[in-house]
Design goal:
It is a single chain. By secondary structure, the protein is α+β, with helices and mostly antiparallel strands. It folds into two domains: about 270 residues, no CATH class; about 140 residues, Alpha-Beta Plaits (2-Layer Sandwich), CATH 3.30.70. It contains 13 helices and 19 strands. The strands form three sheets. Strands 12-13-9-8-1-2-3-7-4-19 form a ten-stranded mixed β-sheet, sandwiched between helices. Helix 1 links the parallel strand 1 and strand 2. Helix 1 packs parallel to helix 3, helix 3 packs across helix 4 and helix 8 runs antiparallel to helix 9. The longest helix is centred in the last third of the chain and has 20 residues. It starts with a strand and ends with a strand.
C-alpha cells in the first residue's frame, strides 16, 4: 500500500510557492494537512488569544488549500488554529474559511474541534491526581488554574472522529503537530511507527530541507518504509537533514512522545533515493500504558514598557556589572518614594539585559567574553498596569543615561537611545503557567466538536 500525505508549509500564514502546491496536487495525496501554531513564539498568543500571523497571510494560504482540497476531494486538516489553539483561534479561522467559501463558491462539511479546558474540570482532576507535572513545570494549584488560559493538546482520535462524522475540512484547536499528518495514514492501516515518524518529519513543511524554506513536502508511506520529497523541484532533503529534524523540539533525538505512545527512531535507517529525496525504514511505535494529553497554560503577569539603547564606550559597559546593582537600589527607593504602599517590591520588576555581554546565555555562557566594540542594552519594566510600567520606565531611562562611571568626572551620557521618547509600551505580558499532562478517561472527553455545512 501507499499513503500520500501533503504538507504544504510549516504553518498557515507562513506562505508557500503556488507552483509547489500545484505539483503537490498533481501527486494525488490522500490528505492535505497543515499546522497553524505552537508555543514556539512564547506565551503571548495563548495568554491573549491573539494569532501571531496576520489574517491576510492566513487567508491567502487557506484559500489555496481549500481550492486544492476541492480539486482533490480529500480531507484538509488544520490544527492549533490561531497560533495557540484556543477556542477563539478556531472561530477566527472558521470565519476566514466561511469568507473564502462565499467568495469562491465552495461547499464542504466543516468540523470545528475545541481544546479550551474548563477550570472546574481541571481542579477536580488535579485533586484526584489525574494531572501530573512535566519537567520543568511550575507549581499548579487552583489559583493558577483560575488565572490561566489552558488548552489540551489532542492526538489523532478527535480528528478521526470528525472524519467519521463526515468532515471534509477540520479546523482544530491545540493539536499535536504530528497527529495532523498521522490520522489519515492510521485510518488507512499504515504502520504506526513509519506513520508517526513521517508525520514528525513533515510537520514543519520544507524546514527539513537542506535549505529550510516556507514551502511544502510530500510523504509516501509504504509497507516497510516512508519517503520524503520536497514539492519544489529545486529543493532537496538528505539523510542528514531528515534525521536532524527528529531532534527539533525534542530533548531525545530517538524517542518522541505523543498522546498514545512513543515514536522510536533509534533503529531508523535513512537512505537517499535520489539527489533530492530520502527513504526511511526501521521506525517503531510503542503504545503507552496510560494515555495522556499535554496541557499548556499561560497567565497574565503584568504590563511592560521597554527601553532600547546602545553603548559604544568600553569604559562604560565594562563598569555596568558594578553600576547596575547600585542603580537598582536607587530605582527601588524611587518607586517607594513615588508609590508607597500602592506598589510593593514583589509587584514590579526592572530588568537590564546587555546584548554583547551574556544577554542570551547568562550564567550558562561557555565562551570566554572579551571586550566587545559595542553593546546593546534592553531595559524591561514590568508592573501591574501599563501606566505604572511607563511611569517607572521614564525615570529608569533618564537615570540610566547618566550613570556615574568610574574614571569620568562630571555628567556624561552613558546610553544612546535610538528613539525619542525612548520608552516603548509593550502592553500585557504573559508567562507559561502550566506544563503538565492530563490523564483522561478517554481520548475524546475533553474536546468538543461542532459540525457545520459551509
Amino acid at each position: 500500500m501507499e499513503v500520500r500525505v501533503l504538507a504544504p508549509t510549516g504553518v498557515i500564514g507562513a506562505g508557500f510557492k503556488v507552483s509547489s502546491l500545484q505539483r503537490g496536487v498533481s501527486l494525488r495525496p490522500h490528505v492535505i494537512a497543515c499546522d497553524a501554531g505552537s508555543t514556539d513564539s512564547g506565551p503571548a498568543a495563548l495568554g491573549s488569544g491573539t494569532p501571531k500571523l496576520s489574517r491576510d497571510a492566513c487567508k491567502r494560504d487557506l484559500r489555496l488549500l481549500l481550492l486544492a482540497r476541492q480539486t482533490l476531494d480529500v480531507p484538509l486538516i488544520i490544527g492549533s488554529c490561531g497560533t495557540s489553539g484556543r477556542d477563539v483561534g478556531v472561530d477566527w479561522m472558521a470565519d476566514i474559511a466561511r469568507e473564502i467559501a462565499t467568495e469562491e463558491g465552495l461547499h464542504f462539511s466543516l468540523a470545528l474541534i475545541y481544546a479550551d479546558q474548563s477550570s472546574q474540570r481541571l481542579k477536580e482532576r488535579l485533586a484526584l491526581g489525574q494531572i501530573q507535572p512535566l519537567v520543568p513545570a511550575p507549581p499548579l494549584d487552583a489559583q493558577v488554574i483560575d488565572s490561566s488560559h489552558i488548552v489540551a493538546m489532542m492526538g489523532t482520535e478527535p480528528l478521526s472522529a470528525a472524519l467519521d462524522a463526515g468532515a471534509q475540512v477540520i479546523l482544530a484547536g491545540r493539536a499535536s503537530d504530528s497527529a495532523l499528518y498521522a490520522v489519515v495514514p492510521e485510518r488507512m492501516g499504515a504502520d504506526r511507527g513509519l506513520t508517526w515518524h513521517a508525520a514528525k518529519t513533515i510537520e514543519c513543511g520544507a524546514a527539513c530541507c537542506v535549505t529550510p524554506a516556507a514551502d511544502g513536502l510530500i510523504a509516501y508511506i509504504r509497507d516497510d518504509h516512508f519517503e520524503i520529497e520536497p514539492l519544489d523541484l529545486d529543493a532537496q532533503v538528505t539523510p542528514l537533514s531528515v534525521a536532524a529534524h527528529t531532534l527539533y523540539e525534542n530533548s531525545n533525538p530517538f524517542l518522541l512522545t505523543e498522546p498514545a505512545g512513543v515514536v522510536d527512531t533509534e533503529h531508523a535507517v535513512y537512505h537517499p533515493t535520489s539527489a533530492r529525496s530520502v527513504r526511511v525504514s526501521g521506525s517503531d511505535f510503542h503504545h503507552a500504558s496510560t494515555y495522556s494529553l499535554k496541557l499548556e497554560g499561560a497567565q497574565l503577569v503584568g504590563y511592560q514598557s521597554v527601553v532600547i539603547g546602545g553603548i559604544r564606550d568600553p569604559k562604560i559597559f565594562m563598569a555596568l556589572e558594578a553600576l547596575l546593582p547600585k542603580a537598582q537600589l536607587y530605582f527601588q527607593a524611587r518607586v517607594a518614594e513615588l508609590y508607597g504602599d500602592r506598589l510593593k517590591p514583589q509587584d514590579y520588576d526592572i530588568d537590564f539585559r546587555i546584548y554583547g555581554r551574556g544577554a542570551v546565555m547568562g550564567p550558562l555562557e561557555v565562551e570566554p567574553v572579551g571586550v566587545p566594540t559595542e553593546v546593546g542594552i534592553l531595559i524591561t519594566v514590568t508592573a501591574p498596569s501599563q501606566e505604572l510600567a511607563s511611569q517607572i520606565a521614564k525615570f529608569v531611562s533618564h537615570v540610566s543615561a547618566h550613570l556615574p562611571v568610574p574614571g569620568y568626572e562630571g555628567l556624561i551620557s552613558t546610553i544612546a537611545y535610538p528613539f525619542s521618547p525612548p520608552e516603548l509600551e509593550r502592553g500585557p505580558t504573559y508567562r507559561f503557567s502550566v506544563n503538565h499532562v492530563l490523564l483522561p478517561h478517554n481520548p475524546l472527553e475533553v474536546f468538543r466538536t461542532r459540525m457545520i455545512e459551509v
